[in-house]
Write a structure and sequence with these properties.
372 residues; alpha/beta; two-stranded antiparallel ribbon; 15 helices; 43% helix; globular
């Protein structure tokens, strides 16, 4: 029996709630496929600051370094958001973790679910059949460049810096993903203005020679933002730098109808971290209304990374059925909604009824499931 050590970082806000539902799903699927997941819980973000006065305690970093994969919840707290003088901030913990483990590639799949086409603010005919993945560089660029504020506080600067070695690894991964999908890759940049973007273009064009079957095109970031709204089906694999990817991937969440549906993977040379795209959503903390689907799908991506591909597909199928049968939290179904726990329970029950799924779905339709 294969055994995996998973570092679990629930974090702040709704993080612990969505993590709890995810580990329950992972435990069920592990039993079905005869492997074991051993969890080591550790603190990061605001909760870690309260406990240790550090956003990323050394104990947490060590647990992550020794893990086969990392499952992360959310980070952030209004206490720090509303205090511009705070010297330690929760988000520093995640940035430091990415940097320390050289987790340089962020992967965010975005798709439009048939059952949720009417939940998006965009027209159905525009988003229908959208299925893309965004590859965002994570540990360089403006977020990690030198930062300076003048002594009088009247000017400031943030340096955006990239090197060939920063760009090369994620570019290979993006091209490899394109080869498995529709063989189309779009580099999003601002090469008409920025030197760093021109380096991205040169590097990507050079590496493209190793993947001649992939169609490569270039789109300026302002146009890409517009096309994500006007014609998202035009994209398959998007490759971009850190800040552009941060903004565009959050913008793309409107396609599915809720940011609570978007999972992500962050991959490095030796470590990988899996997390929902949404933030800590402190307004929902403890109310049982947080959408656990993004975190559960992140758990599926974690299993895929570990080589448990069939288990990952089973979770994805269960999530699809959850959405199809409208077992949804208030962000997607404000009138007839279900709690965080009920959504997780449906997904677990569906997996458990592996050999009798039709009967289970029939019970859901008749309203005889225990969660209806």
């Amino acid at each position: 029996m294969k055994k995996y050590n998973i570092a679990v970082l629930p974090g702040d806000g709704i993080g612990p709630e969505v993590i709890q539902e995810t580990t329950k799903v992972l435990d069920i699927i592990a039993t079905h496929y005869n492997f074991e997941l051993h969890y080591q819980y550790a603190a990061i973000g605001a909760i870690a600051i309260e406990q240790t006065n550090e956003a990323l305690p050394e104990k947490t970093l060590l647990a992550c370094k020794n893990a086969d994969a990392i499952l992360f919840g959310a980070i952030g707290d209004p206490k720090y958001d509303n205090n511009p003088k705070a010297t330690i901030r929760p988000e520093q913990g995640l940035l430091a973790l990415r940097k320390a483990l050289n987790i340089s590639t962020n992967i965010r799949p975005v798709k439009a679910y048939k059952a949720l086409l009417n939940k998006s603010p965009l027209k159905k005919e525009i988003i229908d059949k959208t299925d893309m993945v965004i590859y965002r560089e994570l540990v360089s660029g403006i977020y990690f460049g030198d930062k300076l504020t003048s002594s009088d506080g009247l000017s400031a600067s943030d340096v955006c810096s990239y090197s060939f070695s920063d760009i090369e690894p994620i570019t290979h991964l993006a091209f490899q993903a394109a080869m498995k999908r529709n063989k189309k890759l779009t580099l999003v940049d601002k090469a008409n203005v920025l030197e760093t973007s021109r380096l991205w273009r040169k590097t990507v064009q050079l590496i493209h020679k190793q993947y001649p079957e992939v169609a490569l095109d270039f789109v300026y970031v302002d146009n890409a933002a517009m096309q994500l709204i006007l014609n998202p089906k035009a994209f398959d694999v998007i490759l971009t730098e850190n800040m552009f990817g941060d903004i565009l991937s959050d913008q793309a969440s409107v396609i599915g109808g809720s940011i609570g549906l978007l999972p992500s993977a962050s991959i490095g040379d030796k470590n990988a971290l899996f997390e929902p795209v949404h933030g800590s959503y402190p307004q929902a903390k403890g109310k049982g209304i947080a959408n656990p689907i993004a975190c559960i799908l992140s758990g599926a991506m974690l299993l895929d990374y570990l080589g448990q591909n069939k288990a990952a597909k089973d979770i994805q199928e269960a999530v699809n059925q959850c959405i199809k049968n409208k077992i949804l939290t208030p962000d997607l179904e404000p009138n007839k909604n279900h709690s965080t726990i009920e959504v997780g329970q449906f997904i677990r029950n569906y997996i458990q009824c592996k050999n009798n799924k039709n009967k289970y779905l029939e019970n859901i339709t008749l309203g005889s499931s225990t969660i209806i």
